[in-house]
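FIELD: query
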Amino acid sequence: MLSGTLAGQSISILAAPILARAYSPSDFGVLAVYIAALTIMSVIASMRYEFAIVQATNSCEAKTALHLSFLVNFTLAAGLFFVLLVYQLALIILYIQPPENIRLFYFLPFSFLAIGAIQILNSWHLRNGSFRRIATVVVVQSLVTGCLQIISGLNGFADGLVYGLLVGQLLGAGYLIFISVKVSPDLLIKSNGEKLREVATNYKDLPKYSTVGAFCDSLSTQMPLIFIGNFFGLGVAGLFSMTLKTLNLPIAALSGSLHQILFNKIARLKIENQESIQPFLKKTFRNLIFVMVPFVIIVWSFGEAFFVLVFGEQWHSAGDMARFIVVAVAARFCVSPLSSILVMKANLRLGTLWQICYLLSISSVLFMLKNQDIDTLLLVFVGHEIVMYGIYYLFILKGANRLAI
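FIELD: result
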């Protein structure tokens, strides 16, 4: 599974310089807002019932959970399509000029369906230990998306970024459905209503609690991008998205691995020596700062030249943005891997409280800055990230104290 993720990321890295020269920052802005909207909605694609597939006590219950997840996914996708249809009809009736590029967002229900199917079937294959199939989907999806986006861009098709993404998602979902049915033909046998209601009731906490926290987290993460696209234009949103994606790329895999390693270490210390958890977290935090200081200095000194060299002259402003945003990325990286302690049962409410506080604070800050220039927004955004992740660090230390009691 890890090899598939790395292969998918490698394809994206190789394609990035070509795509950056084939499309404008505005084109990337449209893609970024599309992905942001899809990312927020994908959290509720099956109301988290896909996690019931892995947790099910037997294969029959797991299959019923899979059918329930698909039922929820189709229902919500149909609802999204209906909302977009009503919106389009309202624009026509009221003679209102539709926003630019709005036509691309009518594909969201299909992306929503595809992402939902991939999440659901990934859970099914994860339960059955079929990691190779999950990795294959990641590679196929990345390869198809990258190739179609490059071909479209080189032929002057500005919407190719979104269309390439959509086709990659649909093919990825189609492959998973095909291979799943081929291996387990009984998946096509429908579960009866009574079994569906039973599974929905047994795992009602997933949509009731897990969905809310995950939705808040996803919304707060994507909100700056959607806000910038709305108030500062798609071109600026494209620059912001490319900058954030590029800066996160070298540390994303490291952050995920650290999160898993630290979780295992904390779980072990909880059993062996609870008093040593907080000192361990403080030492890890200091080490992560030492790792990030050189990274920040390098980006601050050479970020502009790097973006021009790799992506082309039109991305010059992204290098300027990187000097601000790298500080926020560093703050997140130094604290986020430590947050695994808030997943512990004793700290679940503390973790949810943080997610709600962050969502409220980022919403308030962005709303107050809607009439400011982009440099002011970025400066305040970085300050917000430093303060809020500082508070997050205090929450984590508080969680460590709880475990030590």
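FIELD: remark
Residues 235-404 form one domain.
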